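The records we work with from here on pair a chain with its fold. These numbers are not coordinates but entries in a learned vocabulary of local backbone shapes. To see the layout at work, look at the sequence and tokens printed below:
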Amino acid sequence: MKRTCVTCRQTKPLTSFRAQKRKRRSGPYLYTPRECRACGNQRRVEWGKTPKGKEADKQYSIKLKMKWIQAYGGHCVCCGEFRRQFLTVQHIHGGGTVHREQVGWGNNFLRYLQAAGWPKDKYTIYCMNCNFAERHGERCPHKTELSRDGFVF
């Protein structure tokens, strides 16, 4: 079966279309493709380049990161840093680079954590300084200073 794209007016097979969920006046949902994937992707790319699109992407990223920070306690478990710009995911058992290459970086990785229910047995929240120190197999300077000075967070 074929359908005509409402944007480019080309007739293409149904596999070239995204299905949109539309409710009928009575009865179940009806799925009707509107525009082909190529036109839809191009429209989304162009919208993302506009100031409004960039701002929407930025706000989405901040909102997703704030959900992640709240889910993992709100601060670095090592030094107590709480500013979102400095916080990052720490893989407790290592292997973060390989894992992020499998599931994606940035928002894709945070969406993966959200879909998995924010698992706390494999991930925690560190600031970038603590993350970099432990990434190279060294003990974080905060832990060394805290144990020497007798302070505990």
